[in-house]
């Protein structure tokens, strides 16, 4: 009998993960209640089986891969079903939530008899061409997550308790996206002060790898800026009020809110940034 | 008769610039009133001549290279002397000040008959081995700064008004030092959440050039953190209250204040950062 893995969330990441797992011999279930015809088609294209919630609770492993705001809801939905399940296995939350939210999920699922593990996905959805993304898992003493490695995922087991994988995701996103916010802020300031051309020249000389990174990462950010606002607030909360980084990431949220507003208006800021980067995109 | 250039400020940068200029045939004057024997010795080693203020006002070019907080004082000190000078030439402020402070300096020297130019030095003090740093100058329609190029400095003339060179310095420092503040914040958060080892591995995979940069720039920052606090506030002021970057750099100031306090205490944060970076320095 093949390994059965359930994935809650059949978005771009969830369905790509499902596809990779089915291609490596796993049977992959997902909830399809109330989903659009388009989503059900994507589920089937990925080789996943749309099932009802009781079948989910019979899986060998359940992965939650949903937007951060839905993470607690998934745990609440599953909690009674997992409590009633005859065989107990493990639930892994792979969402971009902070460790405090992860703790809430652990509490929600306490008493079900299931192991609750912390996960973080770093990288873009798997494709036929890529080996990525990486699946970090912490709190997995029983090595439940080895099933993922067995079925084609790039697993990175962390020798650390629940909370560490969520923290890793926060820290990595803070670095990566914070860099984009810092770059956008300074490039706009350069454009507004007559120093843009010299700045680009100077970066080309003394920070070439940063200029190259900005030429890709800043334009890639524009359409995602509205989502990053909430992510920056999540990172601020993770750092906590005693860390000066908390105010740093609240300000980052405002930087991205400004870009998001610009995207909904005339895209003038984006045009200025492209001009500084000499990126005609 | 050789070109005479006066440098106000014979610190590490000022005296190294003086040395470079004298080696390229310029006569270089500096104010020595009330300076320590050590400073006077450094002035002489650099081939510069310690003079009284009236001689400064007879130079072909005056450069101000002092700590940011002293920039306005230099202009106030020189103002009456420049007004009385028979031949008028140019004064270049090369200090790390924001464009509003540069405007104050222009006002202070208005009516002296001298051209007031805006400059920014980017890079480390000149040495026998280096071609750097770069000397950016804006507002120089009359091309006074060509004297600097003629005497061995790496000049970058900006086709932009007074204020642009100061802005460039703010923007470049904001990028470069902001990156260090962002890195220190996230690395400390990783260490506090059990994700440091995974973060370093992930950075090694997906952000290797950033990890390399941090391995040098974060430890280099510790002894300078106390100075960077004021610089971050200066950048916040430059961006202005309507720019979300203003709050960003106020938070950066707090990040460096935390490191500066740690340097004055037991250096525990520095030790944690070195551990994450695997930098035994």
From TrEMBL, chains A, B:
Enzyme active site: 169
UniProt xrefs under Gene3D superfamilies: N-(1-d-carboxylethyl)-l-norvaline Dehydrogenase, domain 2 (1.10.1040.10), NAD(P)-binding Rossmann-like Domain (3.40.50.720)
Stored SUPFAM superfamilies: 6-phosphogluconate dehydrogenase C-terminal domain-like, NAD(P)-binding Rossmann-fold domains
Limits of the Phosphogluconate dehydrogenase NAD-binding putative C-terminal domain: 193-259
UniProt domain 6-phosphogluconate dehydrogenase NADP-binding: residue ranges: 4-144
Pfam family, one: DUF1932
MF terms (GO), sorted A to Z: NADP binding; oxidoreductase activity
Name by which UniProt lists this protein: 3-hydroxyisobutyrate dehydrogenase-like beta-hydroxyacid dehydrogenase
Source organism of the structure: Phyllobacterium myrsinacearum
């Amino acid at each position: 009998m093949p390994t059965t893995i359930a994935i809650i969330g059949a978005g771009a990441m969830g369905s790509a993960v499902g596809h990779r797992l089915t291609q490596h011999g796993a049977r992959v279930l997902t909830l399809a209640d109330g989903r659009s015809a388009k989503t059900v088609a994507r589920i089937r294209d990925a080789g996943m089986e749309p099932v009802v919630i009781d079948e989910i609770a019979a899986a060998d492993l359940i992965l939650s891969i949903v937007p951060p705001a839905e993470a607690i809801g998934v745990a609440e939905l599953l909690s009674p079903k997992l409590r009633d399940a005859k065989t107990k296995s493990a639930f892994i939350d792979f969402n971009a939530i902070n460790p405090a939210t992860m703790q809430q999920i652990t509490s929600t699922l306490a008493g079900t008899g299931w192991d609750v593990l912390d996960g973080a996905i770093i990288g873009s959805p798997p494709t036929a061409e890529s080996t990525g993304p990486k699946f970090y898992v912490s709190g997995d003493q029983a090595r439940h997550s080895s099933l993922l490695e067995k079925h084609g995922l790039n697993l990175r087991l962390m020798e650390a308790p629940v909370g560490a994988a969520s923290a890793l995701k926060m820290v990595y996103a803070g670095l990566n996206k914070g860099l984009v916010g810092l770059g956008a802020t300074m490039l706009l300031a350069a454009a507004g002060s007559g120093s843009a051309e010299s700045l680009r020249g100077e970066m080309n000389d003394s920070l070439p790898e940063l200029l190259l990174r900005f030429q890709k990462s800043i334009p890639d950010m524009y359409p995602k800026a509205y989502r990053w606002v909430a992510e920056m607030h999540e990172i601020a909360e993770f750092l906590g009020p005693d860390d000066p980084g908390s105010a740093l990431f609240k300000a980052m949220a405002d930087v991205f809110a400004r870009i998001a507003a610009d995207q909904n208006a005339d895209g003038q800021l984006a045009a200025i940034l492209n001009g500084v980067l000499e990126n005609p995109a």
